[in-house]
Amino acid sequence: MPRKSAKSTPVSGPRSSSKRAAPDKATPTRQSKRTKATPAKSPYFKPDSDEEVDGHAPEVAESEDYENESDQNASESDDEVDDSSDEDEAPRARSRGRTAAKGSALPLRKKGGGAGEAEPWRHGAKLAPGTQVVIKKPKPRGAGNVLYEDHTIHPNTMLFLADLATNNDRQWLKMHDPDYRISLQDFTTFLEKLSEKIVEVDETIPELPVKDITHFSAAWSRTGRKGPYAAYYFQAQPGGSFVGGGLWQPEAQALGKLRRDIDRKPHKIKRVLNDAGVRKSFFEGIGNDEKKAVTAFTKQSSNQSTALKKHPKGYDNGHKDIELLRLRNFTLGTKLRDEEVVGPKGLERIAGLLACLVPFITYLNGVVMPDEESSGSSEDEEEATDEGLEPDNEAEGDA
Fold first, then answer.
1. Does one domain contain both 221 and 302?
2. How many structural domains are present in the chain?
3. What SS3 class is residue 136?
4. Same domain, 235 and 372
5. One domain for residues 132 and 265
6. What is the pLDDT of residue 45?
7. Are 247 and 368 a contacting pair, CB within 8 Å?
8. What is the pTM assigned to this prediction?
9. Residue 364 structural domain
10. 355-358 — which CB contacts under 8 Å span 24+ positions?
11. pLDDT tens across 178-205, in order?
12. Are residues 281 and 356 in contact, defined by beta-carbon separation less than 8 angstroms?
C-alpha cells in the first residue's frame, strides 16, 4: 500500500497571469528564483510584460540618462540569491545576473554627472539571449551660456571636432549625428561671414555660395575651391587651426612659369615675401630683410617637405636663388590656438590673416594665370628671351 505522508503538501495549481501571492508555507519555486536572479529593479533591464515565457523573463535594455544604481542592485541581487535554498539553481541565477549586467554595454552615468560611459555602438557586446537593446535617439550637446551666432565659431564645434579626432568611426558618428549637424551649420554660417571679409580685401574672389566643406575647411579662389588659381585657405581643428594660402603642388606648366619668373625677376617675389604683413603674420615678426624673408618662406613646412634636393632641370645648382627654384609648393600659413578661433574675436583674427595674404596670392596668380590685359606683354618677353634677346625693362643683375 502506498505510504501516506505525515504532512500534506499543497498542490500548486496552474500559473496565473496575476502572480498571486503564494501561501505562507509554500516552498520557494524555480519561478521565484529566476525572477529574483534577474535584476528587475535595475533601470537597465525592464520586462516587456508580467508573464514569463518558458521560465525566462524577457529583458529590455534602454539607453537613457540613468542614475548609476549598480551598487544597490548588486547588493539586492546578492541578498536574493543567497536566500535561495535551491543549490542547483543558485549558480545559474548568479551567472545569469552577471552576464546581463556586464554584457549590456549601455551608458552608465554616475550620480553627480560623473564620466565613464559604456558605449553601445562598440562591437563585441555580449547580451543574454532574448535581450532587446533600445537605443534612444541621441540629443545634441547643450549650448550652455554661449549663444550660436553667425559670425562666431561655437565652443561646441571645436569639442565635436576633438571628439571626432579621437573616435574616427562611422558608428560613433551615427550616434553623434545631431552634434555633427549643428557643428556643420555653425561652421557654414561662420564661413559665409568670412567669405564677405575676403571679397572685401580681394575683389578678384567672386561671391560664391559656401559648399563642398570637407573636414571643416574651406578654400577661396577666382574659381572657387578648385581650379588653377592660387587660393586662400582656412581649417578649424582643435589645438591647431590653420590659416594660409598659395599654390599647392601646381601643375608642371604653372611651376615652370614660377621658376622662370624667379630666374628672371626675383625681386618680385622677394618684395612680396618681405611685406610687413607677411613677416608679422607668417614669419614670426622677423625684421625688414629680404634674405631672411626668403629663408623663412622656404622653411615653411609645406614648402620644405616637398622641395627638390637638387637643382631643377635647366637651372644650375649654384644659382643665387636656388632655394626658391627648388620649391614645388608656394604656400604661406600659420596655426592658431583655439582661443584665437572660438568666440567673437575669431572672425576678425582669421580675416586679418587672410588679408595679409593678398599681395602673395596676387603675385602668384599674376605669374601662372595672368590677366588678359597683361598677357600680351608677358608673351613678348618670353619670345624675346627665346631668341637670345633681353627685354628693355630687365635689369642687368636680374638676368
1. yes
2. 2
3. coil
4. yes
5. no
6. 36
7. yes
8. 0.60
9. 208-398
10. 355/197, 355/201, 355/277, 356/275, 356/277, 356/278, 356/280, 356/281, 356/282, 357/232, 357/244, 357/245, 357/246, 357/278, 357/332, 358/201, 358/202
11. 999 999 999 999 999 999 999 999 999 8
12. yes
